[in-house]
Amino acid sequence: MASGSKKVIIAALIGNSLIAVTKFVASAITGSAAMMSEGIHSLVDTGNQILLLYGLKRAAKPADARFPFGHGKEIYFWSFVVAILIFAVGAGISMYEGIQHITHPPEHLHDPMINYIVLGLAIIFEGGALYFAVVEFNKARGNMGYFEAVKKGKDPTLFVVLFEDSAAMLGLLVALFGVAMAQITQNPFWDGLASVGIGFILAFTALWLAFETKSLLIGEGADPSIVRDIKSLAEKYGGIENINEVLTLHMGPDFLLVTISADFEDKLEAGKMEKVISCITRDIKATHPFVKKVYIEAESAK
Question: What is the pTM of this model?
Fold first, then answer.
């Protein structure tokens, strides 16, 4: 999954870098606030992808004495930082530029043809990046619906890029509408309004991303179906009277920590107990490869 995430991020990074430059050039020539907001949007997205790549690199670091369970949660932290940047920088500056354009409109409107050309090319490039992101996301979600996959997904880089690309495509359409309406009506108000609209799109995207990554950052457990399966795997072994509880914690997209409280039979010898614990651990890891650590505690039923 990490490999797929990296491909999606790199594809988006290349596309957004090229698009950002062309948007800023178009904005400088035509004075369009919507194009300036779109340039800021692409620039923020480019920075975000760099941060996500950095997060993936940090998350891949091996465990050490200070971080015995590895650095997998780094990707959750950097995904949350991306959400903050989208909100603070992207949404904030876009709304500011739009309001400035509405309250202090330019005296003359420039020929918007260059805006149309840049927006058209950006839609093509962004559409390709979005398609690539959707393909990778579909591989990861399996038979789940999109919203369910985002809610249950443990690799935020996939849906962060998907959200960014979706917001970028919607922002381009809003910018295209604003530029066209400003030309048709000869009123720059529409251009400024489009910039404000792009800001709202970015703000909504950022808040949604922050909400989805918050639980992973705090410490989210495995899906209930996985917890039930782990419990059933442990219960099938003789010598166990009861499984008191199964606690799980995602330490990263591909690292699940499992702790089991089991009530063993009082007459069970220590050697046999060790063998049962070893078999349960082996079965759990074989069934769920992303389970990296299993701790089983002998504890009487509560």
Answer: 0.77
